[in-house]
Design brief:
It comes from Acinetobacter rudis CIP 110305. Catalyzes an amino-pyrimidine hydrolysis reaction at the C5' of the pyrimidine moiety of thiamine compounds, a reaction that is part of a thiamine salvage pathway. The protein has about 220 residues and is mostly helical. The chain has one domain (about 35-215): Heme Oxygenase, Chain A. It is built from eleven helices and no strands. Helix 8 packs antiparallel against helix 10.
Length: about 220
């Protein structure tokens, strides 16, 4: 069994819980509260900048020139292409540039981005790869699930089309193939660390969506340092 096959098997219940989140169910049928979606879009735009940085560090640690190209391009896509998607949503849902720039990271976004950044700098290349995989893979799988449930004239269709689309899914398959190839060269201890990193990031994916739906920020009396 490959690393990605085992990772998916180990985390199957977590994925099903992610699919079942009200955010994703209501996104599919077009009834998601617009405040929750705007909350998500703002936080996701902040998140993608940190994710792009982590991908760039991953590229610097890569074992081959092809892997450097793959993750450098992925970092560019995370920031440039998906920023364009978020910009269009912000205009459509009347989120001003000032509102975006003055909205701090939520607890969930701060936790997730801090985890990815710390892992990117402090862990080995294989473990960094595993920590970055859920953002690629789970989004693709959720997108494919939602596209089969979406309703006509869904206001969130552009999001659904992006993550269920062939281009994004081909990129995911490239990343999965790279991780499986690298994992096959690793010792058992490293592979287990990869699994732990994958699960931690997958849990944070769940938390990110749930936090958006609940409109969570920071507890009263606390603020981001």
């Amino acid at each position: 069994m490959s690393f990605t096959q085992e990772a998916w098997q180990r985390n199957q219940s977590l994925y099903q819980n992610t699919l079942a989140l009200p955010f994703n169910q209501e996104l599919a049928n077009g009834t998601l509260n617009k405040d929750a979606f705007c909350h998500y879009v703002i936080q996701d735009a902040h998140y993608l900048e940190a994710y792009g940085r982590a991908l760039a560090v991953c590229a610097a640690k890569a074992f081959s020139a092809d892997e450097i190209i793959l993750f450098t391009e992925s970092a560019k896509v995370a920031i440039v292409v998906e920023r364009s998607l978020h910009d269009s949503f912000m205009k459509e849902f009347d989120v001003s540039k000032e509102q975006f720039e003055t909205t701090p990271l939520t607890l969930a976004c701060h936790h997730y981005t801090a985890y990815l950044t710390a892992t990117a700098w402090s862990e080995s290349y294989p473990v960094v790869l595993a920590s970055l995989l859920p953002c690629f893979w789970i989004y693709a799988e959720v997108g494919k699930d939602i596209v089969n449930k979406t309703t006509e004239n869904n206001p969130f269709q552009a999001w659904i089309d992006t993550y269920s689309g062939e281009e994004f899914n081909l990129a995911v398959e490239q990343v999965k193939a790279t991780i499986d190839r690298i994992a096959a060269q690793c010792d058992a201890v490293t592979v287990e660390k990869m699994h732990q990193a994958y699960t931690q990031a997958a849990e944070l994916e769940w938390l990110f969506w749930d936090s958006a739906y609940q409109l969570r920020t920071w507890p009263a009396g606390l603020k981001q340092a």
